[in-house]
Amino acid sequence: MNAPRTEGWEGRLSAAPPPARRLGGLRVWQNNQAWLTPLLLLVLPVGLFGLLIITPIVQSIWISFYDWDGTGPATWVGLSNYAELFSDPQFYTSLKNNVIWLVLFLLAPVFGLALALFLNQALPEMRLVKSIFFIPLVLAHVIIGVVFTWFYDPTFGLLAILFNWLGLEPLAILSDEHFVTFGIIAAALWSQIAFCLVLFLAGLSQLDQELIAAGRMDGAAGWSLLRHIVLPQLRSVSFVASIITVIMSLRNFDMIAVMTQGGPYGSSTVLAYQMYDATIFSYRAGYGAAIATVLFAIMSVYIAWFLWHTLRREARGG
Q: Range of 281's domain?
């Protein structure tokens, strides 16, 4: 009769895996840490970007090929939504207004830089002046829209009071199809200029003062100092301000919704508001998705061109 088998500490030691095998995973991590660490850190943000940005874009493009009211069954219609869109006069009115928004909104970085240069002075009273210029930045666009609606009112608005003081007939800007878009853009620019102002003030605080002092010693002053020494150091800030301004000009919606709802007679509508109107009020989610896809394509093409032009200019050294 065989005796029961027992294992002492010698058996357990011999059955344990060798140290090299147990530490194999750790050694792999140490040997590949240079690329594994950034890969693991990028998994979450890239996953969120794909879930929250890429997926809705793909879904919106896919929906644009359907006739769908947003709740019921969807019917495949192919390119019919796009054919209807490109034959709709309202689309070209909205597109024209988007171009006007884009051109005039590009004044925001220019005025923001000018104000930043003016406010970037070591004077005690400048703190109060800066806080006044920062007010539009902390106000919601809805509030700004309401305030400017009162400002433009032809009966009791400040603009009407000014016209009466000058002996002129008050102009109903928001009711005139020729001036309404420019009135809304002026209200939106008030906020966007403040945003660009903050960006350029931050950029001016990071300037290389030794380089500026060297330029002054070489005789640079005024415009030559600004052009050859200050502006090159603000190139990255100018790039960010321009890109964000372009995006805001093409996707602006809340100002129009508050001030005119696209009126009068659709003359102030832009593509973003036309998409909202078609989807929410006309129950045409597929048609609204087609408008959104066209707007996304316009933004992508313009931003890609802007990036290419900027990178090409930097590669040539200026």
A: 85-315
CA distance 154 to 223: 42
Give the tokens for residue 186: 């002026």
- List the CATH number of the domain containing 162: 1.10.3720.10
C-alpha to C-alpha distance for 154 and 15, rounded to whole angstroms: 93
> Phi and psi of 241, rounded to 5°?
-60, -40
The label of the residue with tokens 């305030």 reads 147
pLDDT at 230: 85
Number of domains forming the structure of the chain: 1
Q: Does residue 201 sit within a domain?
A: yes
Residue 17 confidence (pLDDT)? 53
For the chain, the straight-line distance linking the first and the last C-alpha, in angstroms and rounded, comes to 94
- Assign 52 to helix, strand or coil: helix
- Name the residue with tokens 């996304």: 296
| Amino acid at position 3, single letter | A
- Pick the closest to residue 245 from 211, 208, 195, 288 (CA basis): 195
Beta bridge partners of 75: 67
Inside any domain, residue 99: yes
Between the alpha carbon of residue 145 and those of residues 87, 110, 201, the distances in Å are 32, 23, 26
With tokens 């690329």, the residue in question is 35
DSSP states of 198-266: HHHHHHHTT--HHHHHHHHHTT--THHHIIIIIHHHTHHHHHHHHHHHHHHHHH--HHHHHHTTT-STT
How far is 12 from 35, CA to CA, in rounded Å?
A: 38
pTM: 0.82
Evaluate whether residue 157 is within a structural domain: yes
Is position 93 within any domain? yes
Instruction: Kindly report, residue by residue over 150-165, the tens digit of the pLDDT.
Output: 999 999 889 999 999 9
